[in-house]
C-alpha cells in the first residue's frame, strides 16, 4: 500500500507547473488576483519539484538570467545609499514577480508553448469584450470611463497588450493552414486593432505602428516595398481611426496642441510636456549622480535647482524625495547610475540575441522587445505590475523557446 510520502513523491509537479504557467498567461490581462495566485503556486511547486542541480545549471548558462540577476542585485544594494530604507525595501519587494522568469525558462514543457499563447489570447478576448461593453455603455465598471475603456489596467499598458495581441494574431493568420481559423483570427485581429484605437493609450498606438514597420522591414526582401507598404498601411489605419474614433481624434489633437505650446510658449504644464520636463530633470540628476545613482527613493532630492533653472513651474512646490520620471531609462539611470542603465539595456540586447529556428517566434520576440522598449520611454516598465508581469511571462517564454530550438 502506497503511503502519503510515496504519493507525495510520485506527483508529476512539472505537469502542474505547466498548468499554472497557462493559468498565469490567461489571468495576465484580466485579473491581478489570479496572476498573483498562479505566480505564488508556480514558485511553491518549482521549489517542491526540486531538481535544483539541473535548474541552476540552466540559469547559470543563460546570459539574460545573469544580467537580470545582476540588475536585481544592484537594485538591492542601492538600499544602502538610499536615505529612505523602508521605501526602498518596499519598492524592491515588487520584484518578486521576476521569479517567474527562471521558473518558465527551466520548467516549461515545449508541448505547452502554444497553450500559453492561446491562454493569453483568450484572456485578452475576455478583456476586450468587457472593454467594448463599457465603450458602448452596455455595462459599467467602477473607475472606467466609456471614453477610455481600459477595464483591468491603465490605458498605457492595455494599449501595449492590445498591440502585442494584434501581432500574435497576425502570425496565426499567416501560418494557420485551416481557412476557418484564419477567418476567426482575422476577425479577432480587427476586433483588437479597433479596440486599441478607441483606447486612450497613445503609447500602444505609436508602438504598434513603429513595430509594424520594423517587422515588415525584417521580413520583406524588397525593402522599398516594406517601407512604402508600411507607410501606406499606417496612413490608412491612422486616417480611418482619426475620422471615425472621437477618442483617437481628441488624443491626437491634444498631443499636437501640447507639443505646439511646449515649443512655442515654453509651456511644460500639459500631459506630454510635463513628461518632457521630467526627462530633462532626470537627465540632470543622472549626470550629477553618474556612477551609482541616488539610490531608490531619493530620485527627487535637490531637483528644485533644475526646476528653477528651466522654470518648470509645474514642480515649483514639489517636496518629496521620490518621483516617477515616467521613463524607465531615466528612472533607472537616476536610481542606479550608469551601471543600472547599462544592465537595463543589456536585458533587451540579450533577448534580441536569442536564436530561433521558427520565424514565428523570432518575429514575436522582436515584436515584444520593440513594444517593450517603446513602453519604457513613457513608464516604469519593470515596476508597474501590468508591464512587469507581461515582461516576466514573455521573456521567460522566449528564453525557453530558444533553448528548445537551439538544443535540437
UniProtKB/TrEMBL annotation:
Bilayer topology: Multi-pass membrane protein
**One GO cellular component from the entry?**
membrane
Give the GO molecular function terms: ligase activity
| Chief place where the protein resides | membrane
Give start and end of each O-antigen ligase-related domain.
188-345
Pfam (any one):
Wzy_C
- Which keywords are on file for this protein? Ligase, Membrane, Transmembrane, Transmembrane helix
Name of the protein in question: O-antigen ligase family protein
Protein's cellular compartments: Membrane
Membrane-spanning segments: 20-48, 64-83, 119-138, 158-175, 204-220, 225-242, 332-352, 359-375
